[in-house]
């Protein structure tokens, strides 16, 4: 088959997940879990196949293709066509989304099976996969769109799926509504970013007269320095959008709370794919960022600051998923920083590698949580009423708290092994993918912007530390709770995707090896077809050695604190003694949520209450409506009733009647009843008529 | 014998005037009735006179109709007078003023 006919298959990648979700929507509940899981996995798997075909086609025709699907919007100058842009960037994203997505789908069929949190609602299983397929379809729309507006449709689609899936166990969480609040928080925080993105779209349209990528970037290139001012405004707004979706300062606060969703959701949406949409968007719009060097360096600083800040918080967390969540924010910061430095290939490389190992880590964490949760469930079911009675006094058991874990390594061997691979990759140990991708970013930063390099290097050190801390707390030492002591390895459907992801983590680095050998810089040269002015940076042995050193120092420190003398049950974190108030800050996420509560939420609520109570209720409703509109209307209608209707309309009718009556009263006198009088009248009348006729 | 038209019209006028006077001044219903008949016949006479004058038969035919109608009127009128008399024991028309407005 020729490349062209392969490209024409691209819409299938979007159509298949949609078909899958429609099938599940219609028949999923009736045909049961096995069918629903099979349909969902099949749909995404086939979409992956389509993506692979696109990659094959692209290797023959590197310039890619635009596959039109339909005319969409035609309003005056605004002409938007829905077309798929198949180029190396889009296909890379497609492969990650559908590839990692397929593995997570397979994992989820087992993870969601018989979930104890379903609350005996069997329809949830199907609903989960409907949302999951919808997410894949939206994400593919996002990465394949050939215009900013198509990208925005996917952008909102994935945001919706994120909201739906964070609140999937909507009746759980703090006070039975915490998860629903988490979903709401994610949605609203993203809305702030989306507002920026929308303004960017408007600015792009007014400046360039089109939203199509090709045309916008071509005109941006032509415009050159003359466009610097407006380009700064556009890219700043784009950065706000990216900060919302990719959880950067100041809009990152939703991502940790998003861990309320089921673990496969955290892996797929909040680690591997959706949160990278912002980075994809920045890389896609690199031609605009090239015109605004100030904003580009702002992007880099935002990324670096986020990376460091989130890493410090990750050090002080106890929830296994929250550590990973802050780590995700931190790693996204690395990608954003790389994009800001112009190291687009490094950014995408880290995006791909991070998708592998972070999905692996989340899924591994899910496997551990599942093991502990089932053990806990068995124990409470066996103990019956006794435990339920006791539970009223003790806080409920938290299967995600690392202080309840320990010693999992011996009981969940496969999970332990793959988690170790993922964690070491996150820490940046060669030859895992995390080492290569992070190293490439560090090298770029080292050459381009040394302060940022320092921040990122420090972050890398802390990353290794909190990763080591997590490994020690979860896997080694003695079990600090009964469920952790009785956890069993998860079924094959869960461990197989883990093994596959571990393999990708081990081998992933080879897609973009540093150096100048024929096999190195594959991804960079592949990306160069889409992104102009990519500057391959010469590898630096010094930076690599330093990075490895930092990793080893971080891991070593973690071993010293948590590995040498494992944490005892109920004991305080050893860092608390060492860092004192700093650790309290890390533990409490630097009170950013509280700060936002004070700075934004409460004033906003007060403003809303002021607007509602004072302006709307008292002024608008009581004042304007009651006093002006209602009273005015009353007065007008009163005037009309008493001063116009009664005297004029009613008066006219009455006067007519009275005149008739008066006339009749006068005329009745003529009717005397005397026949002779009538006769006389007739005579007189006849005489008068004759006289008139004769004298005429 | 050829009586001039003017004489006949004069006679008709005199008869009509007597009828009018009779209706206006007399209160006896029977007499008033007769006076009305007098006026009718004065009109009949005038019609016949002009019919002869113009040698046109239409006026004469008209008179036949008037005589027919007058006969019917007399029947109705006399019946009324009898009915009034039965209730009022008088035929004075000024006594019968029940239709006064």
Tell me roughly what share of residues is in helical segments of chain B.
Answer: over 70%
- Number of E-type strands of chain A: 2
Largest sheet of chain B: none
Question: Could you tell me the mean pLDDT of chain A?
Answer: 89
Regarding quaternary structure, what we see is: heterodimer
Tell me the Rg of chain B in angstroms. Answer: 17 Å
Unreliable runs of chain B: none
CATH level 3 topology of chain B: Helix Hairpins
How many angstroms does the end-to-end distance of chain A come to? 116 Å
Overall geometric form of chain B? elongated
Order of helices and strands of chain B: HHH
Structural class of chain B: mainly alpha
Order of helices and strands of chain A: HHEEHHHHHHHHHHHHHHHHHHHHHHHHHH
Given as residue ranges, the uncertain stretches of chain A (5+ residues, pLDDT < 50) are 385-393
| Percent in strands of chain B | under 5%
Question: How many domains is the backbone of chain B divided into?
Answer: 1
Identify the strand order in the major beta sheet of chain A.
1-2
Structure description:
The complex is a heterodimer of chains A (about 700) and B (about 100). With about 700 residues, chain A is mainly alpha-helical. Chain A has a domain at about 595-670. Chain A is built from 28 helices and two strands. In chain A, strands 1-2 form a two-stranded antiparallel ribbon. In chain A, β1 (about 65-75) and β2 form a beta hairpin. The radius of gyration of chain A is 37 Å and the shape is elongated. Chain B is mostly helical. Chain B has one domain: Helix Hairpins, CATH 1.10.287.3510. Chain B contains three helices and no strands. Chain B has helices at about 5-25, 30-55, 60-90. In chain B, α2 (about 30-55) packs antiparallel against α3. The termini of chain B are far apart. At the A-B interface, α28 of A face α1 of B.
